[in-house]
Design a protein that fits this description.
The protein is of the alpha+beta class and about 140 residues long. It has a 3-stranded antiparallel β-sheet. It is globular and about 45 Å long.
Length: about 140
């Protein structure tokens, strides 16, 4: 069976046809994200602009625990049920130098044993030093 690895400029997700069936695909390209964080859109935009900041998170209605997941769909679901007073949601993609394993080894990330693919950030400033952030999906705004 012939397969193709495509990168589409300027699109993060798009549909392709498999015969007559449309399939939503994820544009990995050069910017594959290691982790995702779902939240309200204002918080997501703030993270992309400024990195993680506990004071900014509290000011925007967040808490002291920063949850991430390896699954973008899970992050999108979390964004939808986020208690922040906003209908607009955003998912931040996080690229970590050396990948998730480097984040865990350095103590920046901690695995959540009961939730496969879930990680909390133990050192917010430390993650800012080894990660880049991008808005990978949003609703509203």
């Amino acid at each position: 069976m012939r397969t193709y690895n495509l990168t589409v400029n300027d699109l993060h997700t798009f549909y392709v046809l498999a015969g007559s069936t449309p399939i939503l695909v994820h544009n990995a390209g050069a910017g594959v994200c290691d982790l995702f964080h779902g939240t309200d859109l204002a918080s997501a935009q703030n993270i992309v602009r400024n990195g993680l900041n506990a004071n900014a998170a509290r000011a925007l209605g967040g808490g002291d625990v920063f949850w991430t997941t390896t699954n973008q769909a899970d992050a999108e679901l979390f964004a939808q049920v986020n208690p922040a007073l906003s209908e607009n949601t955003g998912v931040v993609g996080i690229r970590i130098q050396g990948g998730i394993e480097a984040g865990v080894r350095s103590g920046v990330l901690q695995e959540v044993p009961q939730l496969p693919g879930a990680f909390t950030v133990a050192d917010w400033a430390g993650l800012n030093k080894i990660a880049t952030y991008e808005l990978v999906s949003s609703t509203g705004g």
